[in-house]
Amino acid sequence: MSKNKNKLSIFVVVILMFIAIPVSAESGIKIKKEHQECSSANECTLFNTDCLHCGCGIPINKYWVPYYENEFKIKCHNYTGTFCDAMCPKEIMQCIKGQCVNVGK
Q: What residues contact residue 70 under an 8 Å CB cut-off, 6+ apart?
């Protein structure tokens, strides 16, 4: 009976490890929709939200960049996972229907 308990314990630990990996790989910050609002394209920029640096950035109003830089430092300062170097399209920001949008290709 104790052999079965040990096997079950090992199985549970392995499953928990696999569940934890994607959670840590998706670490980063979330941009609030209202922080993407704009009245002109010159208010917009892209901001990397992902500790892995795999994304090309999320369109955001420049006013909020200092806030999210601080959030990013707090969230990602101990990140020790992998990093990527994404090939991103050219940044061409537009303000479309009051939201910052990257129309670059």
A: none
Domain range list for the chain: 28-102
Phi, psi of 102 (to 5 degrees): -95, 115
What percent of the chain lies above the pLDDT cut of 90?
Answer: 42
How does strand 58-61 pair with strand 44-47? antiparallel
Handedness of CA 26, 69, 91, 83 (dihedral sign): negative
Confidence of residue 5 (pLDDT cuts 50, 70, 90): low
38 touches 101 (CB < 8 A): no
Secondary-structure breakdown of the chain: helix, strand, coil percentages, each rounded to the nearest 5? 45, 20, 40
Q: Residue with structure tokens 């990996």?
A: 21
Q: How many CA atoms lie within 13 A of 4 on its CB side?
A: 1
Q: Is 28 exposed, middle or buried (0-12, 13-18, 19+ CB in 10 A)?
A: buried
